[in-house]
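Go through this chain for my students:
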Amino acid sequence: MDHRNLQVLDHPLIRHKLTLLRNKNTTHKDFRQLAEELAGLMTYEVSRNMRTKSCPIETPLEPYDGQELENEVTIVPVLRAGLVMAQGMLDMIPHAKVGHIGLFRDENTLLPVQYYCKLPESIGESDVFVVDPMLATGGSASKAIALVKERHPRSISFCCLIAAPEGIEVLQREHPDVKIVTLEIDRRLNENGYILPGLGDAGDRIYGTK
């Protein structure tokens, strides 16, 4: 596994919230809130190297030369589970634009099937975060990244809560220029393409559909 473009975030709060997220007894309401909070914590790290520019303002007492983000940011959730991560990131960067990519996994072939793609016209000027809670086989993530690359953005990072080694290998092979940011790397995929130990189907657990 190539670690040069792979970042695993480690923090006591992340480990604590990720344990609650994995617990099968966590309600869909709490699961959704935890996923948003984890995405917010992740945003703090993935935005660390963003450029800022001077922003002169007036405090109640005197002029002050502040700083504001120079980079345009676009968050692209992979529907449907990625929506909850997008919200957590928007809480931290509310001026970010949002695109949407709709993919589902064919349960027989495990290959991604596209049904929707809507991206901001200005995405070519953006640092883009493609977000999906789980990086399993890597098929959906790779397809989503390929769709974003057609618009030639300034940079692309793929952000997930949990990753499998198999998915990381696929992204590093097909998109070696894209940074992968995750909170934890799990053991492997099972015969159905689910991450072990994982947390189950993220979309179903977010929306209470199973």
The mean pLDDT is 93. The radius of gyration is 17 Å.
